[in-house]
């Protein structure tokens, strides 16, 4: 008889657990799709549950921290990321975003320490480590640690999706260090192998020759860059003319258009300065 009386309680508990899991499934979908209005709607009801499992609680901290970062309030995200335990499935994601929050706050020394600790771990997959190296290298470059940045960029795998940014970083650090040969080598790789991902390679080759005062080569490469960018701009403008403003890739194409217009202006300015020096 007692067993029969307990059945409804067990069934109720199972039903409650299933409802919570459905809510978490919806929350994960909202985070994955970056639908932050849905995240904001779902967080309050989940935060008031007292019987959440440790993985659920960790994910709740992650989702709330991501929401704060989406709003630009990185400082409020930091303590939430720090609450997530090392054995959590979302720990590495949390620490990566913690480093981003430090960088957004301008706390680059904290960010560098965090990224170096992550890179010292043995278990993360190679591409995640490449992402950390890119973040660290970019920050070192921005802070003027050019030798450190060049070393960091050089550790990024050549088959990584970050390899184009790595070549650009190596080239920029070489320029700052006065190594024009190293800069040319990196920018040529960028131009020849990654023109679609990062179109700046053609301009940067010309700019490096300009810095070396090799004006004929600089002029030829500025002209080549102009022709390339003008052709690419025409192709994008043709594509945009066929797109509706609401199309999924319209914003991305408009960003590429703005980028190419900037590169065209920079190349034209480079040519003009060469004419002035003759």
UniProtKB/TrEMBL annotation:
Protein name (database record): Tetratricopeptide repeat protein
Q: Which SUPFAM superfamilies match?
A: TPR-like
Q: One Pfam match, by short name?
A: TPR_16
Q: Where are the transmembrane segments?
A: none
Identify the InterPro entries for this entry.
TPR-like_helical_dom_sf, TPR_rpt
